[in-house]
Design brief:
It is a single chain. The model has no long low-confidence stretch (mean pLDDT 97). The two termini are 31 Å apart. The chain is built from seven helices and 15 strands. By secondary structure, it is of the alpha+beta class. The longest helix is centred in the last third of the chain and has 16 residues. It folds into two domains: 113 residues, 2-Layer Sandwich (D-amino Acid Aminotransferase, Chain A, domain 1), CATH 3.30.470.10; 148 residues, D-amino Acid Aminotransferase, subunit A, domain 2 (D-amino Acid Aminotransferase, Chain A, domain 2), CATH 3.20.10.10. Helix 5 packs across helix 7. The strands form two sheets. Strands 7, 8, 9, 10, 11, 12, 13, 14 and 15 form a nine-stranded mixed β-sheet that branches.
Length: 276
């Protein structure tokens, strides 16, 4: 069965779904997006994701997206999708067609919803620290922008070296984030994650782990990642994934007891409330 996509309010067969070649999401990466998890056709934390979509659009000075319409588009696509145990929903929102430079056009925005199956991540993950820092003072710091070229390059770099995720430091030399994940470490028995001021994305799963698992936010020197007692990644589609290796440095245990407890709590709380 072919799952339809939703484009600007219309459900379309993927073969017929198009956006303009002049769309600035394509031309200059002028857009924002969200990835949302579904479990057997039910979205998880949809409200938080759509709130963040609005915030990202606001921070890029884009018109406010119609999140009610987008939510309807998500449900319409899922209604015709297979009963996947785990699904991935991609919402993309751009400034729409524009001129060949960076100036924005006046034809209106583009909103797209696509759903697909998500294969589970490995039980543990290996990560590679990349040599390019995040700019925590940049205009797009903390924005879930479609300008993802640096992430694509970093992830390719990591995979060439056996890593499943790339990890960025920032200009201050502190731990920042992965290409599509946040990072938590255990140090001196405490669960901590970089502050948003470090330049990382305010991940939805990150926020839930902070709320549910008693973690703390603090600046984390990048070197502490190699010295951590435990470490894990969080993201919408992986939930919590213990880190096994950082470059060639093995974590003492993966998962460790604090990570294992976080996995348990997240699974229980997430199952009890699909829109926390």
């Amino acid at each position: 069965m072919t799952t339809p996509v939703w484009v600007n309010g219309e459900l379309l067969d993927p073969a017929q779904a198009t956006v303009s070649v002049f769309d600035h999401g394509l031309m200059v990466g002028d857009g924002v997006f969200e990835t949302i998890k579904s479990v057997h056709g039910r979205t998880f934390a949809l409200t938080r994701h759509l709130d963040r979509l609005k915030l990202s659009a606001q921070r890029m000075d884009l018109p406010e997206p119609d999140v009610e319409a987008i939510a309807e588009g998500v449900q319409a696509c899922l209604a015709q999708a297979p009963d996947w145990p785990l699904g991935r929903i991609r919402v993309t929102y751009t400034s729409g067609p524009g001129p060949l430079g960076s100036d924005r056009g006046s034809e209106g925005t583009t909103a797209v919803v696509i759903v697909g199956e998500q294969k589970p991540f490995p039980v543990t993950g290996d990560v590679t620290v990349v040599p390019w820092p995040r700019n925590e003072r940049g205009a797009l710091a903390g924005v879930k922008s479609t300008s993802y070229g640096d992430n694509a390059k970093a992830l390719a770099y990591a995979k060439q070296r056996g890593g499943g995720e790339a990890i960025f430091g920032n200009l201050a030399g502190d731990l920042c984030e992965g290409t599509g994940s946040n990072v938590f470490i255990v140090t001196e028995g405490r669960l901590v994650t970089p502050t948003l001021a470090a330049g990382c994305l305010a991940g939805v799963t990150r926020a839930l782990v902070l709320e549910w698992c008693g973690a703390a936010e603090q600046d984390v020197p990048l070197s502490m990642l190699y010295e951590a007692e435990e470490a894990f990644l969080t993201s919408t589609t992986r939930d919590i994934q213990p880190i096994r290796l950082v470059d060639d440095t093995a974590m003492p245990v993966a998962p460790g007891p604090i990570t294992a407890k976080a996995i348990q709590v997240f699974a229980e709380r997430g199952a009890a409330d699909i829109d926390p």
